[in-house]
Amino acid sequence: MSHTAHIPSHRKPRRSASKLALRAGVAGGVLSTLAVAGASGPATAAEPVTETIELPTLTTGLSAQIAQSADVTKQAADQYELQAEQDAAATKAAKQAKKDLAEAKRKAEAKKKAEAEAERKAAEERASRSSARTVLAASSDVAAPASGSVASVIGFLKAQVGDAYVMGGTGPNSWDCSGLVQAAFKQAGVSLPRTSQAQSTAGTPVSLSSVQVGDILYWGGAGSAYHVGVYIGNGQYLDAANPSKGVVIQDLSGYPASGAVRVL
Asked: CB of 239 within 8 A of CB of 180?
């Protein structure tokens, strides 16, 4: 036995190759893990692994928010566009209303001017008619009747020359034949029937050869006459002839009467 045999050896026991390989592999894995953790930064290394699992949820929520924001933006744009269209329509309507109002005012002014012009012409016509009547009365070639009553009848009739003929008219500016005769004799205090048929039998019948100023002339049969007038002398009579002529003086030769009656 060696003199050193009783002294324990300071050498460590030799480890087996398999154990050394195992430990080396574990150490390498640990070092690799540490290297990866170190590359991701201290903050990431400190975070729990569970947060990494929640990342897909955060991404989905963010997408929803973006989509919602896009919808809101589109709705706002649509609203602005609608408001712009409404404003444009309102502006157009206001312009049209202003144009229509101006046109209505123009038409009203034109109508007012036309009415004023028509009234002016009517006044001139009335003045002209009145002047013509005055001249006609002053220059009449009818012999002065013996009776003042006949004169009033003839004067009234001549004052109506130029008036209109209207069926059923009794004055003061439009007449039919019997209405004019009735009104004329009323000036002399004589009340005559209203119709030409009745007037043709009023008073005393006279022949056309002996007719005098103021006699009533009629056309048609006595009692069934369809027209009447008043003889004013010189082969003329005055009557409300028809709508185209109105109240006029005419010659008996152009339209001979059927008969005559005398009431004055």
From this structure: yes
Distance CA(233)–CA(157), nearest Å, equals 13
Alpha carbon distance 187, 172 (integer Å): 13
Q: Is residue 182 part of a domain?
A: yes
Counting beta carbons within 10 angstroms of the beta carbon of residue 212, is it exposed (0 to 12), middle (13 to 18) or buried (19 or more)? middle
In a domain, 81, yes or no: no
- Number of domains the chain contains: 2
pLDDT in tens, the chain (264 residues): 445 445 455 555 555 544 544 454 444 444 444 444 444 444 444 455 555 555 455 466 677 777 778 788 888 888 888 888 888 888 888 889 888 988 888 888 888 888 888 777 767 766 655 554 444 444 333 334 445 799 999 999 999 999 999 999 999 999 999 999 999 999 999 999 999 999 999 999 999 999 999 999 999 999 999 999 999 999 999 999 999 999 999 999 999 999 999 999
- For 90, the enclosing helix (H) or strand (E) is helix 49-138
On whether residue 234 sits in a domain, the answer given is yes
**94: in domain:** no
Q: Which domain holds residue 21?
A: 17-46
The 10 Å Cβ neighbour count of residue 68 is 10
- Measured between alpha carbons, how far is 7 from 156 in angstroms, rounded to an integer? 183
pTM of the entire predicted model: 0.47
